[in-house]
Design goal:
about 30% helix, 2 domains, binds zinc ion, 8 strands, alpha+beta, elongated, 5 helices
Length: about 230
C-alpha cells in the first residue's frame, strides 16, 4: 500500500469516528448532533442513530466506512442506504402531489426516474425534471410520456407540426408541452417544459380551432327537412 492509500484509509476511519457523533437530516442533508431529534434547518424528524450507526450492517454487525451502500462483509444493504431511498421516495411523492397543484391539466408522469422536481418559472411556466441512470432510459421515458399526452388529446399544431411540441385546448386555454429541449441541461435528466398560452419566438403556431358547438335548434330544423 502506498502513502496515498494509507491516507485515504485514515481519512475514512476519521470520518467514521466523527460520524459516531453526527446525524444527517434525510430531508435537507443538514448535519445535526446525535442528541437532536429534529432538524434545525427544515424541522424534519431525524433518524434514531448516528451516521456511523447507519453504516453498521444489520446482518453481520460490521462497521462499514461512511458513504458505503452495501456491507463489504456480506453485501446486505446498509440502514443508511435504506433510509436515503425512503427519504428520496417521500420527496418524489411530495413532488407528484404538487403536480396536481401546478400541472393538473397535463397527464401525470409515471415513467420512472428519480429525484423529481418541479420548478416554477412564473407566468404559468413550469419545468418538470427526473433523473435517470443514463440518457437512453430518460429518452425512452420521454417518448412514453409523449404517447400518453397524445392519448390524452394533446396534438402537434402549427404550420410546421412537431411531435416535440404538443398542445391541448382546455376551456379556451392553450396548454403546451415542450419535449424538444428536454436534454439541454443534463443528458441523464430530461426537463420537460409546461406552459400556458401560445408559444412565441418564431414558432409558426396556428391556434387549434375549438369544435363548433352543435345547436339543438338546427338539428330539429334538419329533422323537419329530412323527416328523421
Ligand atoms: Zn433538514
Ligand atoms: Zn454485513
Amino acid at each position: 500500500m502506498g502513502l496515498f492509500d494509507d491516507l485515504e484509509k485514515l481519512a475514512k476511519t476519521v470520518a467514521t469516528e466523527i460520524g459516531k457523533n453526527v446525524k444527517v437530516c434525510p430531508q435537507c442533508g443538514a448535519p445535526a448532533g446525535v442528541e437532536q431529534k429534529f432538524c434545525q434547518s427544515c424541522g424534519a424528524q431525524l433518524p434514531e442513530g448516528s451516521v456511523a450507526q447507519g453504516a453498521v450492517c444489520e446482518n453481520c454487525g460490521k462497521q462499514n466506512d461512511l458513504g458505503t451502500k452495501f456491507c463489504i462483509e456480506c453485501g446486505t444493504k446498509l440502514p443508511i442506504a435504506v433510509q436515503e431511498e425512503q427519504a428520496a421516495a417521500a420527496r418524489n411523492q411530495q413532488v407528484m402531489d404538487e403536480w396536481n397543484m401546478y400541472l393538473g391539466q397535463y397527464p401525470q408522469w409515471s415513467f420512472g426516474g428519480r429525484a423529481y422536481n418541479i420548478e416554477d418559472y412564473g407566468d404559468g411556466n413550469y419545468v418538470f425534471s427526473a433523473e435517470f441512470n443514463n440518457y437512453q432510459e430518460g429518452y425512452n421515458a420521454v417518448q412514453q410520456y409523449s404517447q400518453i399526452l397524445q392519448q390524452n388529446g394533446f396534438q402537434p399544431a402549427g404550420q410546421y407540426p412537431s411531435m416535440e411540441h404538443l398542445y391541448k385546448m382546455v376551456g379556451g386555454i392553450c396548454y403546451h408541452v415542450d419535449l424538444e429541449h428536454c436534454f439541454e441541461g443534463d443528458h441523464n435528466c430530461p426537463s420537460i417544459g409546461f406552459s400556458v398560452g401560445e408559444p412565441s419566438g418564431g414558432f409558426n403556431y396556428v391556434k387549434p380551432q375549438p369544435k363548433p358547438q352543435i345547436d339543438l335548434g338546427d338539428i330539429k330544423k334538419l329533422g323537419k327537412l329530412f323527416k328523421f
